[in-house]
């Protein structure tokens, strides 16, 4: 059984919502949704967050299409690189033409079946695992220009670089020629009492890792925890669209 909580907001400087999320039941894309919660009684779970790339055309269309298409497979369909490339192909079939050509989005998704879980991502939307003892682990990989430079030896981790290097190096683009995007995937274990957090960069860039983690309390219910993070992002000015999906594995 999973206790799921989620929230979403367009941010204080944006007229529209470019994020989309899958809350284990359905796709959500709204300019402002207060923190909500539900329980999933199944032993399997699928969660996702997609962040439309603002400099691309109609980014909200890309993010919503991606999470809806992913959700159609449900939690019984493994998260594989092949599945994500198939979704990219469908995105291109639908939108790689006319005014929607080039529309883009990130994606991070988690699937759990019993204790065995998978995470997959492209872009910089993130997934974390939080153990019952409050140990944090980032499960996703940020596909940014800076991380590409670090991997190639052109930059050093831990040093300060211009903000432009935090730009995306890879994401899902409605363009048949943009099919060589990087995909990060791995398996992990989720035990009873452990939690997972998925969020767009409107959360982790606004709060920073240290603040995000310091606001966490194992004593909070999933709903109370999401409310805490949401308030912190709003108090910090909410400069970007943001989405949060949080789930805790509970006893059946």
- Provide the CATH architecture: 4-Layer Sandwich
CATH topology: Phosphatase 2c, domain 1
- In whole angstroms, the N-to-C terminal distance is 5 Å
Silhouette: globular
Main β sheet profile: 6 strands, antiparallel
- Main-sheet strand order equals 4-1-14-13-9-10
Total number of helical segments? Answer: 5
Characterise this structure:
With 252 residues, the protein is of the alpha+beta class. A hairpin with a 5-residue loop joins strand 9 and strand 10 (136-138). The termini are close together. It has one domain (2-141, 171-249): PPM-type phosphatase domain (Phosphatase 2c, domain 1). Strands 4-1-14-13-9-10 form a six-stranded antiparallel beta sheet. Strands 3-2-5-7-8-12 form a six-stranded antiparallel beta sheet, covered by helices on one side. A two-stranded antiparallel ribbon has the order 6-11. The model has no long low-confidence stretch (mean pLDDT 93). Helix content is 26%, strand content 30%. It is globular and about 50 Å long.
